[in-house]
Amino acid sequence: MTIEIRVPQLPESIADATLVAWHRQPGEAVSRDENLADLETDKVVLEVPAPVNGVLRELRVTTGTTVTSGQVIAVIEEGAAALPAAAKAVAVAAAPVSPPASARDPAGPDAGKLSPAVRRLVEEHQLDPAQIPASGRSGRLTKSDVVGYLDRRLPAQEALPPAVPAPSQPAGTDRAEQRVPMTRLRQRIAERMVQAQATQALLTTFNEVDLTAVRELRARHRDRFEKEQGVKLGFMSFFVKACIEALKKYPVVNASVEDRDIVYHEYYDIGVAVSTDRGLVVPVVRDADRKGFGELEKEIAAYADRAREGTIALEELTGGTFTITNGGVFGSLLSTPIVNAPQSAILGMHKIQDRPMVVDGQIAVRPMMYLALTYDHRIIDGREAVQFLVTVKECLEDPGRMLLGV
């Protein structure tokens, strides 16, 4: 009995997807729930599982094809045995080249945990993941690990896509350029950034915060917190809590514009920007005001891991009433983040840097961070934006205010 493999039902906000990788080829045996292909949307990478045990008989689309919900992309013969080598060679002749077994079924305890981006690189270059040193959390392989391995293993001209000579340069020179298509996620990011700049009156205001109190509080309770909560006490939970206190005082910062109306959100779904190999994504912590520091740290860490692995769900990236982004992890001292539309404001965190400050008339070295709030000036006035940042600053410089609600 033959069974058609169709593109899963895509969410309403997603019109189509791009098939970026096949993990089985015609003539090969497949197991139920095994991932057959990766579909890249403008937000996440989706997997296409096999519905039954059997043999993959036919691929209807090739890598790089744009597909839509319900489209037939392959055919499986249920319960059949794998083709003999000769027959398989004939079937594969009309399909993309099959990656080696080491790439499809990499050895090691984390074999099934390769992100789509890593898996695609491994298959494309016919690598054995077990031979590549991994630097990711829990020993996982990252895209940077694979790229670095390729740079060490191959000459530069082989490790990179074929270069396209610049039209203005004569043939034979050593100057070259590459033309690489944007991923769907990068296209979506570009579209949203341009849309935000074109439709909102964006303005940024700045302040700085002394993180001495937060540092001391973390140092005093770090070990016990990690033992009881099962997660490290970072800085992000403090910033989420501080922003929620400020949003409660200035609800227009938590609002959005719809046509000629201002929609005030009476809940606090906080987006936390995460950088991945594919680009920036913003998982959303729902009802963050109802969660403690431990819950926030666990949820943010789990979202970050799944986002980098490419396994985060689409619904975890939608919605949100306010966003926090931390450029400080990359060394940024100051920046002007762009609002994540249709939200109306975004807080930018930056690098913590020891600087001389005047404290009670004396010069003292303090861990300082610049804060940036970019906001939609159509509905948020400068007074509200400045006072919002002042409230965040006060909460972080005296964390007890967040517990007492003062």
Would you mind describing this structure in some detail?
With 406 residues, the chain is of the alpha+beta class. It folds into three domains: 1-98, OB fold (Dihydrolipoamide Acetyltransferase, E2P) (Beta Barrel); 105-163, E3-binding domain (Dihydrolipoamide Transferase, Irregular), CATH 4.10.320.10; 185-404, Chloramphenicol acetyltransferase-like domain (Chloramphenicol Acetyltransferase, 2-Layer Sandwich), CATH 3.30.559.10. It is 30% helix and 24% strand. The chain is built from eleven helices and 19 strands. It has helices spanning 85-93, 101-104, 116-124, 143-153, 156-159, 184-199, 212-229, 236-249, 293-309, 382-397, 400-404, and strands spanning 2-6, 17-22, 29-30, 35-40, 45-49, 54-59, 66-67, 72-78, 202-210, 255-258, 261-264, 270-272, 274-276, 279-281, 284-285, 322-326, 345-349, 353-359, 362-376. The strands form five sheets. Strands 9, 12, 15, 16, 17, 18 and 19 form a seven-stranded mixed β-sheet that branches. It has a four-stranded antiparallel β-sheet with strand order 1-8-6-3, with no helix packed on it. A hairpin with a 2-residue loop joins strand 13 (274-276) and strand 14 (279-281). Helix 8 (236-249) crosses helix 9 (293-309) and helix 8 (236-249) packs across helix 10 (382-397). The longest helix is centred in the middle third of the chain and has 18 residues, at 212-229. The protein starts with a strand and ends with a helix.
Q: Outline, from the CA principal axes?
A: globular
CATH architecture title of the largest domain: 2-Layer Sandwich
H/E topology pattern: EEEEEEEEHHHHHHEHHEEEEEEHEEEEHH
**Strand elements, count:** 19
Specify the oligomeric state: single chain
Instruction: Give the name of the CATH superfamily of the largest domain.
Output: Chloramphenicol acetyltransferase-like domain
CATH C-level category of the largest domain: Alpha Beta
Overall radius of gyration: 25 Å
